Every structure is written in structure tokens, then in C-alpha cells.
Amino acid sequence: MLLLKEINFADAQKEYAAMQQLPENENGFMNPDYNVSYEEFIEKVIPRCMDESIGNNLPEGYVPATKYFLWEDEEIVGIFNFRHFLNEHLKEGAGHIGYSILPKYRGKGYGTRGLKLMLEIADKLVPEKEIYMSCAKSNIASLKVMENNGAYIHHEDDSEYYTRIKI
After folding, report:
1. Residue 95 Ramachandran class (φ > 0 left, ψ -120 to 50 alpha, else beta)
2. With 90 as the cut, is the pLDDT of residue 136 above it?
3. Cα distance between residue 41 and residue 33, in whole Å
4. pLDDT in tens, 1-17
5. CB proximity list for 136: less than 8 A, separation 6 or greater
6. In Å, how far are 31, 39, 144, 147 from 150, measured between CA atoms?
7. Beta partners for residue 2, in sequence order
8. What separation in angstroms does the CA of 133 have from each of 46, 67, 70, 76?
9. DSSP, res 116
10. Which long-range contacts (CB under 8 A, 24 or more apart) does 19-24 make?
11. CB distance 97 to 82 below 8 Å
């Protein structure tokens, strides 16, 4: 069964292993916790993510955001970052949702199905009438995932597509 679970201590070993499979920046998905030690993951990363989810100790310019892991039964297949609302920087950039599917699970529909689950959560929480997202023009698979979930290209620049999904 496919489901999204917030980052937590109980699943830390599998969460850590998943995070280490994605580089710092792959097609615009930022993973600042790549290459941290397991101890640092437990002592710093998980508590920081939990704080970010409730809006505590946010760096300047950040908004509350929740890190979700996409699970297929007992395996993590992807990671979703959900920003609860947008500031001006996010409206012109990354938007509400960023995601990455772990390499060995790509091309199997997990992105589309995972984004559908994320949109169900977002629909209950975001104040905007549309979900804002973006992807690198070189990442056509990600654009397809968004379009499979009702996205349209709102605008583009030299390197990115900026999409919207009505909710």
C-alpha cells in the first residue's frame, strides 16, 4: 500500500538510507542532508525537520515545511517536501511541493501516485487556490508527473517550467 509518512524517529534508519541515495541537488530537488552521518541525522536533521513542520526556528525567509517519505509497503520509494504556504520567493520559484523518487523506483508511476497523495494533504492546508510547482526543463519526467495530476504550465524561463494545479 502506498502512503506518505512525515519524517520520524521510528523510521530513522530507512529515512536516512533514502536521503543518502539522492545527491545535494538533482534536477532542482535540494537535499542539504546528503552525506551527513547517521548520528547527525538523528541528532540534528530529524529535530530540525520536525521544527520546520510546525514553524519553529525557521531561518530568515523560510516558511513552515513538512518532509514526507513515500512508502510502498515497507520500502521508501520517494521523498516529498511540502511548504505550507508561499512567500514571494517561493511564488516565483520552487512553489509548494518538491519531490524526488529514489533511483531504483523511477519510471514505475510512483511520482504520479505520490504527488496525488501529496495533493490530497495540500488541499486541506494551503491557503492558495492552486498548488505552485516547478521543474527543470531537462526533467521531462517530472513535468509529466505534474501534468498527470492536472498541472498546466503557468510560465517558463530559460531553465524551468512553473506549473499550477487547481485545488
Report:
1. left
2. yes
3. 8
4. 999 999 999 999 999 99
5. 27, 28, 142, 159, 160, 161
6. 26, 40, 10, 5
7. 72
8. 25, 16, 18, 22
9. H
10. 19/45, 19/79, 21/102, 21/103, 22/79, 22/100, 22/102
11. yes
